[in-house]
Automatic annotation (TrEMBL):
InterPro entries for this protein: Cys/Met-Metab_PyrdxlP-dep_enz, PyrdxlP-dep_Trfase, PyrdxlP-dep_Trfase_major, PyrdxlP-dep_Trfase_small
Transferase is among the record's keywords: yes
CDD domains: CGS_like (cd00614)
Entry keyword set: Aminotransferase, Pyridoxal phosphate, Transferase
Transmembrane regions: none
Cofactors named for this entry: pyridoxal 5'-phosphate
Pfam families per record: Cys_Met_Meta_PP
PANTHER family in the cross-refs: CYSTATHIONINE GAMMA-LYASE, TRANS-SULFURATION ENZYME FAMILY MEMBER
Protein name: PLP-dependent aspartate aminotransferase family protein
Organism of derivation: Nonomuraea antimicrobica
Length: 372
């Protein structure tokens, strides 16, 4: 418009019509027609079309948060009496939402692999939900195998693709029915927005856009949509830098005497590395390590010694972040998810890799020194 290189942000909450008849027609399809912000908005619509194209999906719907997208998507696919299979470790609030659905008669079962899925599946199972790489453990799932298994059993598949971004992995091309993302992470890229999206075929996205999206009210704002568009423009450059720095830091930690394990799918030592190389075109910089300790106090001291890794939740921005589930997650929950006391999650930002490695080196030396 007018030669502007940045799309204009439509801030208005509503749109008017020349006649009552035009309004009546528009109200029949608020996902397609601009009526009210809670339905859609030109700026949000542009972000949706870009995300759908990048993910190789027919349609996308943006939400005010990642959990807005996840809860609306799951709700659109199940009814009272239905059962959900969860494969592997998934984002904690996703599990919390599935527990919440129990009050409405929707049950779920967590399984570690497809053999467990064969044992846990029921006549009422409708949905298979998973992540790859998985939450905290960063296990790699054979997406084509999983979707084939689910399809044979009549299940809809939903996968969280936030870790890889649609740049490095395209699950829809491997048989996944619906893909969800937290746009707050790498897509936004600047730690200044909260948003989510679901992408997939129109036959699945349009019903949830017309019902759950409208009724739950988790609408994305046009200003956040503009930030999504901005983030998509620099995503390839930023992800290349995240990948380079993340792998450098992970390689330093791999085999360090104070570290029991490093869980980064981009490392050749990762058990799912060969599969990851086949499924992905690149690697992000979020991964975990397991410190050689069973002490929560030592884990906390390690975090406190870091100077360039800031302690905080979320990930995907310029700044490097560190977090440890043992300091905030109940032991029973950690045991269910297979998270040891010494697990530390790193989000490697865009600072120089040698600066971050030196920061970790000093903290690890201090951890080792306390033993002697």
């Amino acid at each position: 418009m007018l030669g502007a290189v940045n799309p204009p942000v439509f801030e208005n909450s509503l749109f008017t019509f020349a006649t009552a008849e035009e309004l009546g027609e528009a109200l029949k399809d608020e996902d397609e027609r601009y009526v009210y912000w809670r339905g859609t908005n030109p700026t949000v619509d542009l972000a949706q079309r870009k995300l759908a194209a990048l993910e190789r999906g027919e349609r996308a719907k943006c939400f005010g948060s990642g959990m807005g997208a996840i809860s609306a998507t799951v709700s659109s696919l199940v009814s009272a009496g239905d059962h959900v299979l969860v494969l592997g470790a998934v984002y904690g609030p996703t599990t919390q939402f599935l527990r919440y659905l129990e009050k409405f008669g929707v049950t779920h079962t967590h399984v570690d692999d497809l053999a467990g899925g064969d044992s846990a599946i029921r006549a009422s199972t409708r949905l298979l939900y998973f992540e790859s790489p998985s939450y905290m453990a960063f296990q790699v799932v054979d997406i084509a195998e999983v979707t084939g298994w689910a399809r044979e059993r009549g299940l809809v598949t939903v996968m969280d693709n936030t870790w890889s971004t649609p740049l490095f992995q395209k699950p829809l091309t491997m048989g996944v029915d619906l893909v969800v993302h937290s746009l707050s992470k790498y897509v936004g890229g600047h730690s200044d927005l909260v948003g989510g999206v679901v992408v997939g075929p129109a036959r699945l996205v349009r019903p949830l856009a017309r019902t759950e999206y409208q009724l739950y009210g988790a609408a994305m704002s046009p200003h956040d949509a503009a930030k999504v568009i901005r983030g998509l423009r620099t995503l390839p450059v930023r992800m290349a830098a995240h990948q380079e720095r993340g792998l450098a830091v992970a390689a330093f930690l791999d085999g360090h005497p104070a570290v029991r394990a490093v869980r980064h799918p981009g490392l050749p030592s990762h058990p799912g590395h060969a599969l990851a190389v086949r499924q992905m075109t690149g690697f992000s910089s979020l991964f975990s390590l397991v410190l050689d300790t069973e002490s929560r106090e030592e884990v906390g001291a390690f975090l406190n010694r870091l100077r360039h890794f800031r302690i905080g939740v979320s990930w995907g921005g310029f700044e490097s972040l560190v977090n440890a589930p043992a300091l905030s997650t109940e032991e029973s929950v950690r045991a269910t998810m297979g998270i040891p006391v010494g697990l530390v999650r790193l989000s490697v930002g865009l600072e120089p890799a040698d600066t971050l490695i030196k920061d970790l080196e000093l903290a690890l030396e201090a951890l080792s020194a306390t033993r002697y």
